[in-house]
Amino acid sequence: MSPVIIVGMHRSGTTMLVELFEELGGFFGAKYGVNKEAFEFLRFHEEILRNMGGAWDEVSPLLNDKIYDAAISEQICAHIKSYSRRKAIKEYERLGMSKLFWGWKDPRNCLFVNFWLQAYPQAKVIFIYRNPLDVAKSLKVRSDKGVLSGEWIEGVPLKTKLRDSLRENRSYPLQSIRCRDLGSALQLWEDYNILALKNLDGVDYLSVRYEDLLSNPLNILSDIESYLFRDRNMIPQFKKIGEKINSSRAYACSVDEFSEENLNWLKKSEILRKFGYEGLVE
Predict the structure, then answer these.
(1) 126: part of which helix (H) or strand (E)?
(2) Which of 62, 102, 157, 251 is most deeply buried (CB count within 10 A of its CB)?
(3) Is residue 104 within 8 Å of residue 6, measured between CB atoms?
């Protein structure tokens, strides 16, 4: 049974997909990060990012073809294939096999999904994307809250530290000084999605628009069912889950919250046009 890999920028609905899939009987992690990132994959991605001089909120090294060359790609690929054979991942697979289906989500999949597909060539991939204004505002709100409350210096809240002390995994800081600026948060949205589309080139994946999932959940869930469960009838379960989706979260952020400079930059974004969001800034 091949895994389901959820790909999507931070604050773009990946957590919601995991929650939906868990209700269906899927396995997406026994040890989670703060937002349901499977720890085994989150930790590994963070290690690679640090080695490349990046971080979750700074992925520009992966956009630089001068340093991110074939030799680096070969090393990452070999590292991921080796990691996929380790005891921790084999135990993860074993737990997943006991469920209806299994997989993992981590926004950093946008950066490394092509390598995971070499380890799991039959994997199913769902790519979810969301409009940049809502993503940037959500990143700013989360970062403002964390930095201004004093959590940023310590990395994670005290209650999270106490919880983590009782298990082998730990949380990674989600607060970002960079994302307190809406323009920088918009740039991060573009960087992640540029890399996601680049790494999914030639891949048979299902693309899900976050706003469509909220406004027409049954239609989108039907597409997901056809993609993941071609030989099973999951419609009744999907209908039940679709009724719980709150459509009010779509297009929640006003364009007035962004500066003219930010909006003029966004108008030039090729990703904005590819995703069909150009009407947001016209």
Answers:
(1) strand 124-129
(2) 62
(3) yes
Query: 124-129 and 101-105 as β-strands: parallel, antiparallel, unpaired?
Result: unpaired
Cβ contacts of 41 within 8 Å, gap of 6 or more: 104, 106, 108, 109
Choose among 14, 64, 51, 66: nearest CA to 35: 14
DSSP 100: S
Give the C-alpha separation, 216 to 28, whole Å.
24
DSSP for 200-223 reads: TTT---EEEEHHHHHHSHHHHHHH
Least confident span in 3-7, 163-167, 181-185: 163-167
Q: Is the dihedral of CA 101, 16, 211, 214 positive or negative?
A: positive
146-179 pLDDT per residue, tens? 777 655 555 555 555 555 444 444 445 677 889 9
